[in-house]
Design brief:
- By secondary structure, this protein is an all-alpha fold.
- It has one domain.
- About 65% of the residues lie in helices and about 0% in strands.
- Helix 1 crosses helix 3 and helix 2 runs antiparallel to helix 3.
- About 10% of the residues are buried.
- Pfam families: HTH_OrfB_IS605.
Length: about 110
């Protein structure tokens, strides 16, 4: 027999601010590296893998102070999500003949 518990989170003001900062920073990192990958491919026909992006993220965190305020794992997970989006796109592109399927990774909005 399996049981499930429904939990409602009620964060205080400081926790809400931190959650919103984390979400915003993760979105910024995702969009920044998506643009970087697109630009690099357009100019040099090369791409970056997760490890190269992670090294670039370390450098970026030194340049942009507010990226240090959030949990590093959230930022790394946004890079992993971007890598997964690319893998899913190319896997679907190889498998399906029709043009409808997993689309090219898109920029995240608010």
């Amino acid at each position: 027999m399996q049981r499930a518990f429904k939990v409602t989170l009620i964060p205080n003001h400081n926790q809400q601010v931190l959650i919103n900062k984390t979400i915003g920073c993760a979105r910024y990192v995702y969009n920044r590296f998506l643009a970087l990958k697109q630009e690099l491919y357009a100019t040099e026909q090369k791409t970056l893998n997760y490890n190269a992006c992670s090294q670039q993220l370390t450098i970026l965190k030194k340049e942009i102070e507010w990226l240090k305020e959030v949990d590093k794992f959230a930022l790394q997970n946004s890079l992993k999500n971007l890598e997964t989006a690319y893998k899913n796109f190319f896997t679907d592109l190889k498998k399906s003949k029709n043009k409808k399927g997993v689309g090219f990774p898109r920029f995240k909005k608010n």
